[in-house]
Amino acid sequence: MEKNYNVCTGCGMLCDDIEVESEKNIVNKVYTACRVGVAHMKEGRESAVFRVDDKPVDEATAISEAVAILKNAKNPLIFGLGTSTNETQKLAIELARKTSATLDDTSSFCLGRVVEALLQNRFKACTLDDVRNKADVTIFWGADPSDSHPRHLSKYSYFPRGTEKQRGWEEDRTAIAIDVRKSHTAKICGNNFFQVPPGGDAEFIDALIAGLSGKLPKTSYNFPPKRILELANILKGAKFGVVFVGLGLVYSLENLEPLFRLMDALNEKANFHLIPMVGHYNMRGFNENLFEETGYVNSVKFEDGAVKHGPEYSIVEALKAKTVDAALIIGSDPLSSLPRSIAKNLLEIPVISMDPCETLTSRSSKVYINTAISGVESGGSATRMDGVKVEFKPVVETKRLSDEAVLKKIMEAL
Amino acid sequence: MDFGSFLKSPEIKVKVVTYRDIFQDKAMIENRFGEDYRDRSAIIKLDSADFKQLNVKKGDTVTLKNSFGTIVVKAEESGYEPSHKGIAYMPNSPWSNMLVSDETGGTGVPKFKDISATITSAKGAKVTEPGF
Ligand code: SF4
Questions:
Q1: Is A197 helix (H, G, I), strand (E, B) or coil?
Q2: Average pLDDT, chain A
Q3: Is the pLDDT of residue A331 over 90?
């Protein structure tokens, strides 16, 4: 019997084994998904909302107001897209070109650097399916998938019986957590949890590299050398190792050099891959799509057919320097997710917010277009955290427009 | 005994480490403006020694303050071992973001996980509304 599986777009795992029961376009029951996935699949609800200046308007008014804002702007910011399909992202890149916009996504202040290095082949990559089938040593570094990617350990990285790992976690796999805090994932790792002080990761990396080549591992915070040597020994024995890089590690490093050093050292002694713990379901897709178009993963500015790139075109620096004079925010809530000291500058420019749910940003925007939930009410394709392409159809129908449809209307009207 | 505990409202300095929490994430998806999300976000988990020094009870509000912002959130003991005096944990949210520095050194990356603040008891005060 053929079963009808859905894809969950609740996080970068894009689990493709979800079954749902729905009635009258409302999802009632969700099977197989995690707590976050169930909430996400059931998010759909009311009819479309369009607002301009806090007043309800019709679709045409909202779109034409959005178009007017973009037309009047000299340097609009287009931001978000981590929860949009590849198709929507490509349209947004086209729109950015057309409007000479600054284009960025959340990756500029989270995992973008790591994805960029992966796309430049600076790390050895593998898929989550490889992890499931082959991985014997996994390191969660500054990452807590038990909270951020709830099915990570059960579906891929620790518990499953993979084709070459029939004895699962009991015998065949070793999971290691390196973190500033004993997270839920760290608890699962038991004695293989290494607690480093905040900001202590780079030093720990160098100590570990020393340990890997049999030298005495030293840290200024006196991490017991014996434990680092034990860790080095486990890593040296890995036949298929994976480092899952989380925000905790990225925020602790000033640049990626220590991580390059570590991966090189690990690959001298053993076989190690890297997967970034991408949160939003299609942040990696955005990075790849933009990379294909421009050679950069984020923080770009289009101008007279050319493209400029640099941190000054990231949302954070653009808002700080007040270089952008309008913003189109797609499926993102910078007023919540950025430091308030920076995000508040958004209040000084006209903002168009396209989002399936009300957020601090939607409530403060000049134009709000309530879009369909990507992956639940509209379909398309996306790129999983490990780079695998996943396609999905809408689970239920809705009257609300997809962000792709809204962008098309804006493009036509421009 | 610490001198601080003799003062009327002791003030302690902490480094705030942010983290993600699946229950909070789920609450956010359901309603970013709901009580559940606020209750799971506007909290700070303290080392038991710090908690005692502040002279508060679980669920009492405390004020966190630095040069970037001031927030009132609920305090609780972390229950984490070993002791982490001077380090406090907070789920990543609009509340924690009110304390994040705007200094980025031009990199585009704020120091989300490097927050220093002082804490004092705010008994009776309400949790900060995150609106603009
Ligand atoms: S782990 Fe992520 S993709 Fe999988 S069900 Fe949970 S939220 Fe959805």
A1: coil
A2: 95
A3: yes
Which domain covers residue B86, as residue numbers? 11-121
Q: Give distance in angstroms: CA of A168 to centre of ligand 1.
A: 21
Residue B40: inside a domain: yes
Kindly give the distance from the C-alpha atom of residue A156 to the centroid of ligand 1, in angstroms, as a whole number: 12
Q: Is A277 on the interface with B (CB under 8 A)?
A: no
- Choose the residue to mutate in A15, A384, A385 for probing ligand 1, maximizing ligand atoms within 8 Å of C-beta: A15
State the pLDDT at residue A361: 97
Backbone angles phi, psi at B89, to 5 degrees: -115, 140
Instruction: Give the Å distance between the CA of A78 and the centre of ligand 1.
Output: 27
Ligand 1, closest atom to CA A152?
A: 1
pLDDT higher than 50, residue A255: yes
What is the total count of domains within chain B? 1
A92-98 contacts: CB < 8 A, separation 24 or more? Answer: A92/A330, A92/A407, A93/A289, A93/A290, A93/A293, A93/A294, A94/A411, A95/A328, A95/A407, A95/A410, A95/A411, A95/A414, A96/A300, A96/A302, A97/A302, A97/A305, A98/A411, A98/A414
Polymer length of chain B: 132
User: How many degrees, rounded to 5, is the angle at CA B95 between CA B90 and CA B98?
Assistant: 110
Query: Using CA atoms, how far apart are residues A158 and A413, in angstroms rounded to an integer?
Result: 50
In order of A140, A195, A217, A278, B15, the CA distances from A180 in angstroms are 12, 5, 19, 19, 12
Strand partners of residue A78: A103, A328
Contacts B89 to A, Cβ<8 Å: 181
B57 found inside a domain: yes
Average the pLDDT over A41-60 and give the result: 89
* In-domain check, residue B111: yes
Q: Is residue B129 part of a domain?
A: no
- A123 Cα distance to chain centroid: 18
Least confident piece of the model among A55-64, A109-118, B79-88? B79-88
pLDDT digits (tens, 9 = 90+) for A101-113: 999 999 999 999 9
Phi, psi of A253 (to 5 degrees): -100, 135
Q: Which of A274-283, B24-33, B99-108 has the highest mean pLDDT?
A: A274-283
Taking the CA of residue A151 as reference, the ligand 1 atom at the shortest distance is: 1
Q: Measured between alpha carbons, how far apart are the two ends of chain A, in Å?
A: 49
User: What is the rounded end-to-end Cα distance, in angstroms, of chain B?
Assistant: 42
Q: What is the ipTM of this complex?
A: 0.89
CATH code assigned at B69: 2.40.40.20
Q: Which residues of chain A have a CB within 8 Å of the CB of B69? A: 340-341
Q: Which domains does chain A have, with CATH numbers?
A: 49-110+281-374+401-413 (3.40.50.740), 112-276 (3.40.228.10)
Q: Is B111 on the interface with A (CB under 8 A)?
A: yes
Please tell me the distance in Å from A271's CA to the nearest CA on chain B. 30
Chain A residue whose CA is closest to B41: A336
Window 29-58 of B, Cβ < 8 Å to A = 29-30, 32-33
* Residue A168 pLDDT grade (very low, low, confident, very high; cuts 50, 70, 90): confident
